[in-house]
Amino acid sequence: xxxxxxxxxxxxxxxxxxxxxxxxxxxxxxxxxxxxxxxxxxxxxxxxxxxxxxxxxxxxxxxxxxxxxxxxxxxxxxxxxxxxxxxxxxxxxxxxxxxxxxxxxxxxxxxxxxxxxxxxxxxxxxxxxxxxxxxxxxxxxxxxxxxx
Length: 148
Fold this sequence. Notes:
- By secondary structure, this protein is of the alpha+beta class.
- The chain is built from one helix and ten strands; from the N terminus they run H-E-E-E-E-E-E-E-E-E-E.
- It has one helix spanning 13-33, and strands at 53-57, 66-69, 74-80, 83-88, 100-102, 105-107, 114-116, 122-124, 133-139, 142-147.
- The protein has a six-stranded antiparallel beta sheet, with no helix packed on it. A four-stranded antiparallel beta sheet has the order 5-6-7-8, with no helix packed on it.
- Strand 2 (66-69) and strand 3 form a beta hairpin.
- The model is unreliable at 4-9 and 20-46 (pLDDT under 50).
């Protein structure tokens, strides 16, 4: 008994290109949607912590740098030894969460905004205003941050 050869549908070049364009367009929409601007420009913004937040050991924040606490949407810096600063980790341009502190700057991955570790001031990029500052204290070696 002989079987008929298995056939599979073939896609034309046009079909493949159109499909690829649709996938890229959808992916771009998702990427841009993740950076959508906030409906509120308040300094604490939606999702800001509602009271003192214990972030763990102060020793986790390097001198001359900082650490992003993504889940809490807080970034803590240590511009000079023993001097801690805390800011909202939500970029004032499009609401993206900053992702790192590098070269003495808080950096946003979405559109390239850069902020000073000492005061959250805009140093580069499209961000219109500084990062909102929070109150930070060290208690028992741990960082405690309270949104202002």
